[in-house]
Specification:
The complex is a heterotrimer of chains A (462), B (315) and C (287).
Chain A: H1 12-36, H2 38-68, H3 77-99, H4 108-121, E1 122-123, E2 133-134, E3 146-147, H5 150-172, H6 177-197, E4 201-207, E5 210-217, E6 233-234, E7 239-240, H7 247-268, H8 271-281, H9 283-288, H10 293-319, H11 329-342, H12 347-375, H13 386-400, H14 409-415, H15 419-427
Parallel strand pairs in A: 2-3
Antiparallel strand pairs in A: 1-3, 4-5, 6-7
Helix pairs in contact in A: 1-2, 2-7, 3-7, 3-10, 3-11, 3-12, 4-5, 4-6, 4-10, 5-10, 7-10, 8-10, 11-12, 11-13, 14-15
Chain B: H1 2-32, H2 39-54, H3 73-103, H4 112-133, E1 138-139, H5 162-184, H6 186-196, H7 198-203, H8 208-234, E2 236-237, H9 241-256, H10 261-282, H11 284-301
Antiparallel strand pairs in B: 1-2
Chain C: E1 23-34, E2 37-48, E3 52-56, H1 63-70, E4 78-83, E5 86-92, E6 95-98, H2 101-107, E7 109-111, H3 124-132, H4 140-145, H5 148-167, H6 183-196, E8 201-205, H7 213-230, E9 233-237, H8 241-247, E10 250-255, E11 258-263, H9 265-270, H10 272-279, H11 281-286
Parallel strand pairs in C: 3-9, 3-10, 7-8, 8-9
Antiparallel strand pairs in C: 1-2, 1-4, 4-5, 5-6, 10-11
The chains are: A mainly alpha (462), B mainly alpha (315), C alpha/beta (287).
Chain lengths: 462, 315, 287
């Protein structure tokens, strides 16, 4: 905790000064870390440099090599962009499921809402319904439909998706874990179905002075979808970040990802992060200690959802199109697998899981399939059976390594029997085995909500 | 009005199939509080196996029984019974194996771990169906005659076909047998005891592991039977059949009161009717939305369902 | 934590004898039914400000249920409870409405649990910090942007929580995970966490369970310091009669959900109904 905070004031000026001071202090901190722990800091530095340079390396060097010399399974621009998109979503789901411990199986609904927000607000789609509005958009004068700039769309998408998350959560968050999972699964199915079905709306209502006649209007684009969607653009440098822009879009994705990581870290290290941890450990005790569990869980849902809103709006703007076929249950599960594989509760784990799984699903498996297909066409193509592999991964992970590749220390201790000793070694504190107490009942699970259920018999012992 | 009755009859037939699958969900949830995501896919594999046995090679099946409309009735009966037995045994065995591999090791893990494992298992089974059945629907020619059994009574506007009667003939006895088994036999009592309190049941001499395995065995057998009925009544199967059927059946189980056997059947019949009404009067596009809507509504407003809990009294 | 003068205690503290202004908690007609079982039956209960009151009785008498109703975890089937002149449970006709637990906590009631319920995989400091959550002013957007206001609040928070840890002698172990602390330390950490909610009333549920006599003595001294130095009012559930007799200003005895005796410790101990409740009719007659 920097002592500088004691001396600065309040207000936006002070906040900017604080941010500036923090950024200015980074090089000094980095050099100090380098001196202290050479290997690890060097390794991480190398990793970050590689990631920062990869879009250029991939687009220019590897693509060329792959075309002319020998095909390599390297993630191309589109795959790399999707790696960042899924990483943002994984971070969001990690907040809901990892920090707060709420299993959301319908995360795709928020992804879809984010995408369609971009689709509605940056395409000619609403021109057909007579709504035309251009504000700072990158289109000619008099363009049909609504056209807003991407940065504004992201803000709106975050607000819309967070509201949707709050609306979904309000009646459902008091349900116990597995029921909540099913309800969220339901929403994850219903929302894309609405986007699919509202492509041909016919409705008429005549009630006194009210006369609504809607005939075969296309509200959401349905299976055919909405296109073209304006890509993100930067006016001063005249840059467009669409699917044809090569490494540019990947850099925009990395930038959004970096923002997502910062926001998630800030939330984790704040009072709300501690409240989430308390709820996950023992919801009843948290409530008794003054944590408004309903509001805190709702915040987890809404804030977690907003990450999917950013990812969805970026995806739609990047691809330039959005159809309901893009969004189904398998995406919800895919993001969940990323979070679990990477390490539930750990932000970097979520990023790692997303990178690995997107790469495997979109580059590695198709590559292997092609190589096998070249040699032995009768062997089934693994790319078509990707979910078989992912399903096996899920079953094996829950059995043998539920804490994931990069475990968060809390979850590791909760999930593995031997985790206590390992976690202690990490913490560096000596373990007083003679005096370790037995864990209280109900730790690690959410407590019963006695307000909803009358328990006959023994008064519940708190 | 006649149209409505016709729709309701169709809903009843599908509802009975849902009932067989819903019982699997409710039995398993009642005993280990797990939503067995993979159960619908066990049903799908049962129908795939049934397809393989029944369909002639020309239709893409294995041609084991090759039942067609031309098969003489006594032989058809024997072959159908044989198919039922094979599928029920096979799916029972599959279900028990799944429990052994994916759920039993996680019995003491945090509650959500077996649920996630079940999701993974569901994907695995779907892909097995994809490998064996291909990406598209597999169909057979209808086997039963299509005459209206109500015709001799002078009713021509409402149709009840032999295949619908077949559904009832298979499902109703199974439901009765199950009810008797759970209610009257020693093993059934053991199941109910384990559902109430596994630790105490264990102390009272109940082999909890075997009881749970038995539950999965029964659920699998019912799913296998449902698969056979699906092929013979609806005449098709496809690798993602389990998802839609699973959703409907699980909703039925929750609607009736999860853990409650009678509730599962009642809920299934209701869901069958809801499906039929929605398909006919709205459009099939919206049916899934409505069923999901029903599921969410029950869980939010009345999680104990219509008949409340019976098999297990835990909230 | 300012050092308050110990409040001058009234000579009689029986329920119903003091004016409302002298009471921190006033409960009347509190009843709790679970289906067919009545766990607490028509209990009147006063807690004067600045007092240490003990609630005792055989197992299953309804003591913890009563705690749970004061803290909002259960809503009573009947009755009303007011805390610091705020109604926290009120009845209108047949409907009883109560504040939610976190609202009750923010009014100033803190508690510990009979079976320790710490947040095991969080450090001692973080456990206490969670207790302080109810009094923090920063919002979630402050957390997202790490505003200077939030950072200052966090620093002040750490200072205050470390002071609480020092009070319970755990400041050197602030980074240890709660579940790795020895049993006695865990009990004291729970109290520190409850104190972080800045309570006026502290509910302690069997605070000396599992302790030997020297630890028990330390705990009772500590409880008296809480009353004396911090001005807290304390309601205790206890089974250890030495503790009850030693520090209580007043003792209330529950049996089968009803108050069977109330008074100064010595009076209650000699009360034949109390003896009978604990030891059976034969013991009461022989006493």
């Amino acid at each position: 905790m920097s002592t500088a905070t004691r001396t600065i004031g309040t207000g936006p000026g002070a906040w900017l000064a604080y941010v500036g001071a923090t950024l200015a202090a980074l090089p000094g901190q980095y050099v100090a870390a380098l001196r202290q722990r050479r290997v690890r800091t060097l390794g991480l530095t190398l990793l970050f440099v590689l990631i920062a340079l990869y879009p250029l390396i991939g687009h220019y060097v590897l693509a060329d090599f792959s075309r002319n010399v020998f095909p390599l399974p390297f993630p191309d621009d589109t795959v790399a962009t999707f790696m960042t998109i899924f990483a943002i979503m994984a971070i969001g789901l990690n907040i809901v499921a990892g920090f707060a411990g709420l299993l959301d199986l319908g995360y795709v609904a928020f992804y879809a809402i984010g995408a369609y927000t971009a689709a509605f607000l940056a395409s000619p789609h609403f021109g057909a319904l007579g709504i035309n509005l251009t504000f700072l958009g990158n289109v000619g004068p008099g363009a049909a439909g609504i056209h807003l700039p991407y940065w504004l769309i992201v803000v709106i998408a975050v607000i819309v998706v967070a509201t949707a998350g709050a609306l979904l959560g309000a009646p459902t968050l008091r349900l116990r874990g597995d029921y909540l999972a099913i309800v969220t699964l339901g929403f994850g199915e219903i929302v894309p179905l609405f986007f699919k079905n509202l492509s041909s709306v016919t409705f008429s209502l005549t009630l006194g002075p009210i006369n609504i006649q809607i005939a075969n209007q296309n509200w959401t684009g349905g299976v055919q979808g909405i296109n073209p969607i304006d890509p993100p653009f930067l006016p001063w440098l005249n840059l467009v970040f669409d699917a044809r822009s090569g490494p540019l879009a990947v850099y925009l994705g990395l930038f959004l990802l970096a923002l997502a990581i910062v926001v998630a870290r800030n939330l984790e290290r704040s009072r709300i992060g501690r409240a989430w941890g308390a709820i996950r450990e023992d919801e009843t005790a948290a409530e008794m200690m003054g944590v408004n569990t309903v509001r805190t869980k709702l915040l987890a849902f809404a804030l977690g959802a907003s990450f999917a809103g950013v990812a969805g709006s970026f995806q739609a703007s990047y691809l330039g199109a959005s159809t309901s076929d893009f969004f189904d249950f398998t995406i919800s599960i895919l993001v969940l697998i990323m979070v679990i594989l990477g390490g539930i509760g750990n932000i970097w784990g979520a990023v790692l899981g997303a990178f690995v799984l997107t790469y495997v699903d979109k580059t590695l498996l198709p590559y292997i399939g092609q190589r096998i297909g070249d040699v032995a066409p009768s062997i089934p193509n693994p790319a078509e059976y990707n979910f078989l592999i992912f399903g096996v991964i899920l079953v094996l992970m829950m059995r043998f390594r539920p804490q994931g590749l990069l475990p968060s220390r809390q979850r590791e201790a909760e999930l593995s029997v031997g985790g206590l000793a390992e976690a202690e070694r990490d913490m560096g504190a000596p373990l007083d085995l003679d005096n370790v107490s037995v864990a209280p009942p109900g730790q690690g699970e959410t407590g019963p909500d006695a307000r909803d259920v009358e328990v006959p018999g023994e008064a519940r012992d708190l | 009005m006649d149209q409505l009755i016709q729709v309701l009859i169709i809903g009843l037939a599908n509802g009975l199939i849902f009932a067989l699958v819903a019982l699997g969900y409710t039995l398993v949830y009642g005993i280990i509080e797990l939503i067995n995501f993979a159960h619908g896919d066990v049903f799908m594999l049962g129908s795939m196996l049934a397809f393989g046995l029944i369909a002639p090679v020309a239709s893409g099946g294995l041609g084991v029984f090759s039942i067609t409309a031309a098969t003489p009735a006594p032989l058809m009966v024997v072959q159908i019974v044989a198919t039922l037995l094979i599928c029920m045994v096979a799916m029972a065995f599959l279900n028990v194996s799944i429990e052994r591999v994916a759920y039993r090791p996680l019995r003491h893990a945090p509650k959500l771990a077996p649920l996630i494992s079940a999701i993974g298992m569901s994907f695995v089974l779907q892909n097995v169906g994809l490998v064996f059945g291909g990406a598209y629907q597999r169909t057979i020619e209808p086997i039963f005659p299509t005459n209206n059994l109500l015709a001799p009574l002078g009713i021509t506007d409402i149709v009840v076909t032999p295949s619908q009667v077949f559904v009832a003939v298979v499902t109703v006895p199974l439901l009765i047998i199950l009810s008797w088994f759970v209610g009257r036999t020693r093993q059934g009592r053991a199941m109910r005891a384990t559902a109430q309190d596994p630790d105490t049941a264990g102390l009272m001499g109940v082999d909890v592991n075997r009881t749970i395995a038995l539950t999965f065995l029964i659920g699998g057998a019912l799913a296998g039977a449902a698969g056979v009925v699906q092929i013979l009544y609806n005449n098709y199967t496809v690798w993602n059949l389990g998802f839609r059927f699973g959703l409907n059946s699980f909703t039925a189980a929750v609607l009736g009161g999860i853990g409650n056997l009678q509730g599962a059947v009642l809920g299934a019949l209701l869901i069958g009717e809801i499906n039929a009404l929605s398909d006919f009067y709205l459009s099939t596009n919206w049916t899934q939305v409505i069923v999901f809507g029903v599921l969410i509504a029950i869980l939010v407003f009345k999680p104990t369902g219509l008949l409340g809990q019976q098999l297990a009294d835990r909230a | 934590m300012s050092a308050l003068q110990p409040l001058p205690l009234p000579t009689t503290m029986l329920t119903g004898t003091l004016q409302d202004s002298a009471l921190l908690v006033k409960a009347r007609g509190v009843t709790k039914r679970f289906g067919g079982l009545t766990a607490v039956n028509n209990v009147d209960f006063d807690i004067p400000r600045g007092s240490i009151v003990s609630l005792i009785g055989p197992n299953g008498a309804g003591k913890t249920t009563f705690f749970n109703m004061i803290t909002g975890y259960y809503v009573p089937s009947a009755g009303n409870i007011s805390f610091d002149d705020h109604p926290i449970v009120s009845a209108k006709g047949n409907r009883v409405r109560g504040l939610k637990p976190h609202e009750v906590t923010s009014l100033g009631i803190g508690r510990t649990f009979q079976n320790i319920r710490l947040f095991g995989t969080m450090s001692a400091l973080d456990n206490v910090r969670v207790g302080m959550n109810v009094h923090l002013k920063s919002h979630w957007w402050d957390s997202v942007f790490r505003s200077p206001g939030m950072l200052r609040e966090e620093q002040a928070l750490i200072d205050e929580c470390m002071a609480l840890l020092k009070l319970v002698d755990l400041d050197t172990r602030s980074e240890t995970w709660a579940r790795n602390l020895p049993y006695g330390d865990q009990r004291r950490l729970e109290i520190a966490r409850a104190l972080a909610t800045r309570p006026k009333l502290l509910l302690l549920d069997e605070p000396t369970a599992g302790m030997n006599s020297s630890e028990t003595r330390q705990m009772t001294d500590f409880i008296q310091r809480l009353r004396g130095e911090l001005g807290l009012t304390v309601l205790l559930i206890e089974h250890d009669m030495r503790v009850v007799m030693g520090i209580s200003d007043r003792v209330t005895v529950l049996d089968y959900g009803e108050v069977i005796a109330e008074g100064a410790p010595a009076e209650v101990r000699a009360n034949p109904r109390v003896v009978e409740a604990y030891l059976g009719r034969g013991a009461a007659e022989g006493a």
